[in-house]
Design a protein that fits this description.
about 475 residues; alpha+beta; Immunoglobulin-like; TIM Barrel; 2 domains; six-stranded antiparallel beta sheet; 7 helices
Length: about 475
């Protein structure tokens, strides 16, 4: 009898645990209502969840799925510069028995009610994009995921700096900026994270989430593909195009054009890791001209500076750097110097200044500046480029070599380096705009943004490189 009671108890616990496990994943369920405001429509679903569709243009739709019905995010988009891409119409929702429909000049958007399922067609009624069954949105204790149908002949391209085949189908790709020297042909992730891809079914997706997102293009099933994030919001932009060129044009309109570099930046350049001396730079320049080898740019690596990152020439390595830069300019060379996004503790004067000003990333465990190991220069403080006050402070420092005639910068180690997936201690870093798991993938972006804007501020009518 005792055995029977024990087994019954165990069975009850097992069933209860299974029920709990099944309840962990939250789907949108049925759609019960909608509300229109301007170019946005919000659909209300089960468990207080909501889905917002925003018509940016007739070809670009913003989709925001919120598990709790609150459309709130920690930070505004780091990438999107303009959502108004030309939508001029009136958003009308046509309600049918089993679905809602919205029409633009290029798209037919259909939302099935039970369960909620998003489908997008072109104006000729060809299906472009559809949620996979009821699993178009899955919420699991903060983790978010969307699943889309996968056609037998569908191909995927994009995601920026990735190894592997050009067609991403069948692969899993992770977004986590990683310093990976000598990486293999299929190694992932690498240095940059660009969560944008295009489908051969004439659409592109930009997943506007900066956490460690993953894209699975049929690696789990031949019926669907997915993209997901461990935290943050499910915000993505669907963009239609008759060809890849139009899709990319819509992506550029949304996120901005690349800067126009100076013409000489398209020329030949010479760079090595140990270029850190004046006599060496002069010798290299002379040899290039003597041998009549075309060259427009000579780089100086991080050893050019006296201390990380004070932007002062190393006294023992450079006798008259301003004259050197001028002489090389007279020979037709532009000089680019490296900068790292850290302040070495050995560089006591600048480190104390940055620490006192609160310009360094904090360690959430101590409240003090995070102690970052660095490949050179000893342990460092990581400059917090998400803090607005840092911009002018950094800009004044980086202007020093520019005043000597240097033409631009090689922004190096901005992943930031030594913050790959296995370096989990970095997740204790707290930036002005959030914890490192949110900021990591845009850290280099915020640095480059500061470096670029400060260059323009101090050097009007010049192009940065």
């Amino acid at each position: 009898m005792k055995k029977s009671i024990f087994y019954c108890g165990m069975l009850f616990c097992l069933l209860a645990f299974q029920g709990y496990s099944q309840k962990k994943e939250q789907y949108l369920g049925n759609c019960t209502a909608y509300a229109v405001t301007g170019n946005k429509v919000v659909f209300s679903c089960a468990n207080n969840s909501k889905v917002m569709l925003q018509l940016c243009s007739g070809a670009v739709v913003k989709i925001w799925v919120s598990a709790d019905g609150n459309f709130v995010r920690n930070n505004e988009s780091f990438a999107v510069i303009k959502e108004d891409l030309g939508w001029k119409g009136v958003l009308n929702v046509k309600e049918e028995t089993s679905a809602y429909e919205i029409f633009t000049e290029q798209l037919r958007i259909r939302v099935n009610k039970a369960p909620f399922q998003l489908q997008i067609f072109d104006k000729y009624q060809k299906l472009l994009f559809r949620d996979y069954a009821e699993k178009g949105f899955v919420y699991d204790n903060g983790k978010i995921r969307t699943n889309k149908i996968l056609r037998n002949d569908e191909q995927f391209f994009g995601l920026g700096e990735k190894s592997g085949p050009l067609n991403r189908r069948g692969g899993t790709y992770k977004m986590w900026n990683s310093d990976q020297p000598c990486y293999g042909v299929n190694e992932d992730p690498l240095y940059k994270s660009i969560p944008f891809f295009m489908s051969s079914y004439r659409y592109g997706i930009f997943f506007d989430n900066t956490y460690k997102t993953e894209f699975k293009f049929g690696s789990e099933s031949t019926d669907y593909y997915s993209f997901e994030a461990p935290a943050g919001q499910m915000i993505y932009y669907f963009m239609f195009g008759n060809d890849y060129k139009q899709i990319i044009q819509n992506y550029i309109a949304l996120t901005g054009k690349p800067i126009m570099p100076p013409k000489w930046a398209l020329g030949f350049s010479q760079c090595r890791g140990d270029y850190t001396r004046e006599d060496q730079a002069r010798e290299i320049a002379s040899e290039f001209r003597k041998r009549k080898i075309p060259c427009d740019i000579i780089y100086q690596d991080i050893g050019w500076t006296e201390g990380l990152q004070d932007f002062d020439w190393r006294k023992n390595n450079y006798t008259n750097p301003k004259a050197m830069v001028k002489d090389l300019s007279d020979m037709g060379f532009k000089m680019i110097v490296s900068q790292d996004p850290v302040i070495s503790q050995a560089n006591q004067k600048q480190w104390k200044e940055a620490d006192a000003l609160g310009h360094l990333v904090k360690d959430i465990r101590t409240g003090k500046s995070y102690d970052m190991p660095w490949p050179w220069g000893g342990n460092c403080g990581v400059v917090d480029f998400t803090k607005p006050e840092v911009a002018d402070w950094w800009g004044n420092y980086q202007q020093k070599p520019l005043n000597d005639g240097v033409r631009g910068f090689w922004t190096d180690m901005g992943e930031p380096a030594w913050s790959n997936e296995d370096a989990t201690d970095r997740l204790n870093m707290k930036h002005h705009l959030g914890m490192h798991n949110e900021i990591h993938n845009v850290y280099g972006f915020t640095w480059d943004k500061v470096a670029t804007e400060q260059f323009y501020k101090h050097n009007p009518n010049k192009r940065i490189f």
